[in-house]
Amino acid sequence: MLDPLDQLADIPSARDRLDDTELDLIDRARQAGATWNQVAEALGLGSRQAAEQRRQRLAAARTARRTDSDRRWPAEVAALRGLLTDLRRWIDADRRWDSRFPRAALTRRTTVLALEAEPGALYDLAARIRADLPAADPGLPTPVHAIAGRLAEALSMQR
């Protein structure tokens, strides 16, 4: 049986895992078409604004944890993660993203996974994302094309 002090010491990491799960579920619900009012109700919050603020707080905490973790790696890791963060912002803002090209939904999910991955997996997932982004598709927003180009450049200089 674990010592109560050891169990107490595990609480912060358990809280982080619970927060990550909550954030992922909020994002999945929104992607599936749930409104902010529905998310608020499911979380027992009083308003859609409270649900949006909760999501923002959870996302900021996740980003801070990842940034702290990345400090022990070369600067290229943080730069690559920054490019993928920019891509994720565009994907999240684009309601039509999943219909833009055949592998768009896969690119969305891979980007989410890459942002949480350790450096080795980060590079592998970033390479998949780059391969899945249609390089010459005029239907993609110009900033996404720019991110794809910078992503290709960053990957060509790594490893």
Please explain how this structure is put together:
With 159 residues, this protein is mainly alpha-helical. It has 2 domains: 71 residues; 87 residues. The protein has 7 helices and no strands. The longest helix is centred in the first third of the chain and has 28 residues. The radius of gyration is 18 Å and the shape is flat. The N and C termini lie far apart (44 Å).
Concise synopsis of the structure shown:
The chain has 2 domains: 1-71; 73-159. Helices cover 75% and strands 0% of the residues.
List the helices and strands and how they pair.
Blueprint: H1 4-31, H2 36-43, H3 48-70, H4 75-93, H5 104-116, H6 119-132, H7 142-156
Key features of this structure:
159 residues, mainly alpha, 0% strand
Identify the overall geometry: flat
**What are the secondary-structure elements, in order, as H or E?**
HHHHHHH
Supply the number of structural domains. Answer: 2
**Count of DSSP E strands?**
0
Distance between the termini: 44 Å
Low-confidence stretches: none
Report the portion of residues in β strands. under 5%
Mean pLDDT: 90
Helix content: over 70%
Structural class: mainly alpha
Radius of gyration: 18 Å
**Main beta-sheet annotation:** none
Number of helical stretches of at least 4 residues? 7
